[in-house]
Amino acid sequence: MKKSKNKNPKKELLVESLQLPKDVCMGALRVTLTGNSEAWIENYRGILEYTEQMILLQAKTCQVCFEGNRLSIDYYTNEDMKISGCIQCVKYL
Q: Which of 6, 8, 29, 83 meets the CB 3.0–4.6 Å disulfide criterion with 59?
């Protein structure tokens, strides 16, 4: 038997059936890109690694890695952050 990665499948089913936004109801990561120069990230848990070439973030259910050149975190709070620079790749791990 295959186990679901989601710890609460009933909650996910309810959210989907009511067509509610997952980022609000389930704490899902939300990434908004503006071209390849800016990224706004919401619902992240922490910064795991930070260099000019890579920024690795922990989310509730995954990690997200931004790769590029001259990357910087312009600001961050407990809920969101803004990354700027030349973003070449976004990976979900």
A: 29
